[in-house]
Design brief:
Helix content is 38%, strand content 18%. With 427 residues, it is α/β, with parallel strands linked by helices.
């Protein structure tokens, strides 16, 4: 072992001396390489990654087309700042996303670095367009960790506790869903009217399927009613597709499943296969309300990230990953529903396409969260070579963020491990 390697080993062994406590990892091992749906750790084991880099890798780890695009761009130029000197990949990716977005209205796009940045800029665009301050968000929502998006996020610990005071003019309403919060649209409107005057609302920001909140699918008809309501009231409808977008649900954007055309769509995560890139895709008259240089940043739309994004869109099309998401989602749904028949701890099975989840409860009638048991299942999976994630306000939802290139056999292998963990905690 050479001196440089020895220093690196020592740094890793002493990592808690140098890395902030807030940045600890779920897995106790280091990644040494990854490909497809596998991560190889420094313990010599291969782990099936059902988190897909926490939702960033619909095309899998180190897809050759993405790697090649990154390498070729890095040899040409790494950075100019698009506001100083432009480049084609920025425009090409904007065009592809606008063409892929639902609806017939003319659209344009702008790029940022993170999902939170995209959401925050969507709010800024909405406020500038409407000249109103109010932002409406939902129970169980997750929108990011900046001051504004942290305010918009629901879950207190660890995202908000101790970080106040928060941003103003943010109003939280129920997210109607069949399992948790069934309600009519009239009931929903009454709730909103008790919080804020409609004329003070700039935007309603909604995840078409809630991510961190527990993969909660909206009640039938809710998003269509919401679209009609926001149009009538002159309110911008923002669809936060940071987690649901880029083919995960079997459509490029989950909004398509519900027959709506949002005014603004935010995207990130799998957009550039783990490279830092996010975007806002918007109806032209809305997004162009903001004048030149009103939104932007030094690193936004980095050329390496943009070519990675173009490669991702090519892969989704060439490898038919939208249909793949549907097929893998059906495989998971069938397994999960079979498990639900065997294990009382499974309260609900839900999702769209490959965005599937299990909610674990200690009492099906009361829907009491089985938070500790969920953590135990995740630890069992990790001990047995499978990396998986939890979600939900109470941390009692197992969510699947699988790479869409995973084989049926490997997915079944991962689900076998998860089922064994569920069997251990079932009571």
């Amino acid at each position: 072992m050479n001196q440089a390697t020895m220093k690196a080993e020592t740094a890793w062994e002493n990592r808690f001396d140098y890395t902030a406590r807030a940045t600890t990892s779920l897995a106790p091992f280091r990644a040494v390489k990854s490909h497809g749906a596998l991560i190889t750790g420094d313990d010599g084991r291969d782990y099936i990654d059902l988190t897909g880099g926490w939702g960033c890798l619909v095309v899998g780890h180190t897809h050759p087309k993405v790697v090649t695009a990154i390498q070729q761009q890095a040899e040409q130029f790494v950075h100019t700042d698009y506001s100083v000197v432009g480049y084609s990949s920025f425009v090409d990716l904007a065009k592809r996303l606008c063409e892929a977005a639902p609806g017939d209205k003319s659209k344009k796009a702008a790029f940022y670095n993170s999902g939170a940045e995209a959401v925050e800029n969507a709010v800024k665009i909405s406020r500038y367009h409407t000249k109103r301050p109010g932002v409406v968000v939902f129970d169980r929502a997750f929108h990011g960790r900046t001051l504004l998006t942290m305010t918009m996020t629901h879950k207190a610990t660890p995202y908000k506790a101790g970080f106040g005071p928060f941003a103003s003019d943010v109003y939280r309403v129920p997210f109607p869903s069949e399992y948790h919060t069934p309600m009519s649209f009239e009931q929903w409107k009454k709730h909103l009217a008790g919080l804020v005057n409609y004329n003070d609302i700039a935007c309603v920001v909604v995840e078409p399927i809630q991510g961190e909140g527990g993969f909660i699918v909206p009640q039938d008809g809710f998003l269509k009613d919401l679209r009609e309501f926001t149009t009538e009231q002159g309110i911008v409808l923002v669809s936060d597709e940071v987690q649901t977008g880029m083919g995960r649900t079997g459509k490029m954007f989950a909004s398509e499943h519900f027959g709506i055309e949002p005014d603004l769509i935010t995207t990130a995560k799998s957009l550039a296969s783990g490279m830092p890139l996010s975007g806002v895709i918007g109806v032209s008259e809305v997004i162009d309300s903001v004048p030149d240089s009103g939104i932007g940043g030094t690193y936004v739309g980095n050329p390496i990230s943009c070519v990675a994004g173009l490669a991702v869109m090519d892969i989704i099309e060439e490898e038919n990953l939208l249909q793949r998401a549907i097929d893998l989602g059906q495989q998971m749904e069938d397994r999960f529903k079979a498990m639900q028949q065997k294990y009382d701890i499974i309260g609900d099975v839900r999702g769209v396409g490959s965005m599937m989840a299990l909610e674990l409860v200690t009492d099906r009638d009361e829907k009491t969260p089985a938070s500790d048991q969920t953590s135990a299942v995740i630890q069992h999976a990790l001990d047995n070579g499978v990396i998986t994630a939890k979600a939900g306000i109470h941390g009692n939802v197992l969510r699947m963020l699988i790479p869409l290139i995973i084989s049926e056999e490997m997915l079944d292998q991962g689900l076998d491990v998860i089922e064994a963990g569920i069997a251990k905690v079932n009571s």
